[in-house]
Structure formats: structure tokens, C-alpha cells
Amino acid sequence: MEKSAFRCVECNKNALELHRDYSNGILKITICDSCQKPVDKYIEYDPVIILIDAILCKTQAFRHILFNTSLNIHWKLCVFCLLCEAYLRWSVLQQGSEQSSDPADIIRYTKEWDFYGMFGLAALELMAFCGGVFCFLWLSVGLLGARPQPLDPQQLLRALLLSCYGKVLVIPAVIWEHDYSPLCLGLIKLFVLTSNSQAIRGRGTFSSLLFQ
């Protein structure tokens, strides 16, 4: 990763390095010139702690993941989350429909075309959501009349996709089905939206004018 891509997890300012390597394996964390705090405290943390802070929607954890690591699984995570959401919708559809002995219906259930349809629908909704976020940020900043740093669409898209990890929680919600499943699914959607907003806030640039 290029050093110019590093960011301070506290104030979101650019940093030349995360740590300095002295002789005999001695490492010293770099202090940010702007906020006088460690540029990235998470480089000393265990990945499990970083994951917990991300689940708690801490902006610093999102900045660490987005700017100071080479994590590049956002597309794989996106496909997995879409599969989870498609399965949830498909299971609800199957529960609401009665099984039929008609050969045409048997073939349809065998091929599970409904599942692929739900996957396509979830993908379209995700694309619409990401496009809506882009339009909202551009229009909002335009109305503010400010001139922020250039927006990196690829980086913002990566932030949105990574912050959709909460959709994985639909798996235990489906497995442990009970009377409160609709409430659980609503809370999961709220959690995903909260993660999206924190990821956008951690991304900075345009969104810093809106959320800070």
C-alpha cells in the first residue's frame, strides 16, 4: 500500500507512515501532527478487537480498515451478503406459498428459480441504494456551496460494501425462527444503515461536511 494512502484514525488527516521501524526490531507508532494522537492505534490490536470495534460502529475502526490495511474482500463480502438476503426472502416466499403436485411447480422448486430472482432483486436494491448515496452526497454538498476534497467513487463504494456485513446476521435469524423474527430483521436493517453511515463518515471528503 502506498504511504500517501494512510490516514489518521482520529482526525482523518493524511499521514506519511503508521509506525517507524528502528534497529533491533523496535517499532514506534507515529503521532499525528494534527491531533497529536497515534495515527493508527489499531496496528497493535488483535483482529478480533478490531472486528468488535467495527461491530460497535466506531469510526476509527472503519478508517483503519478502509485506509490503513490492504483488505480487499469487499466484493466477496458483497456477494455473500446478497446470498444471505436472497435466502431470507426466498425462505419467506416458500413459507407463504403452498406446495403443489403440479409437475410445472415441482420443476420450478427443483431449479429454485425464485431464489435466483430474489438474489437479482437484492442486487438491484443494493445498486439503487449505493447510487442514491452518491447522489445524496453530491447534491447535499452542492447545496452547502462548499468545495471539499475530490470524491473517490471507488473508495466510497468499497466503504459501503464493507459496511454491509451486518446482513450476515440474517442467517441466525432464519435458523432460530421464532415469533420475534420480524423484529430481529428490522433491527438488522437498522444496524446495517448505522454501519453504512459510520463508514461514510469515516471515509471523509464530501461526507465530512455532512456528518462532522
UniProtKB/TrEMBL annotation:
Keywords: Endoplasmic reticulum, Lipid metabolism, Lipid transport, Membrane, Transmembrane, Transmembrane helix, Transport. It comes from the Eukaryota. It is found in: Endoplasmic reticulum membrane. It is a multi-pass membrane protein. One of its GO terms (biological process) is regulation of plasma membrane sterol distribution. The keyword Magnesium does not apply. The chain crosses the membrane at residues 118-144. Its main location: endoplasmic reticulum. InterPro entries: Arv1. One of its GO terms (cellular component) is endoplasmic reticulum membrane. Belongs to the ARV1 family. Mediator of sterol homeostasis involved in sterol uptake, trafficking and distribution into membranes. PANTHER family: ARV1 (PTHR14467), PROTEIN ARV1 (PTHR14467:SF0). This is Protein ARV. It comes from Gadus morhua (Atlantic cod).
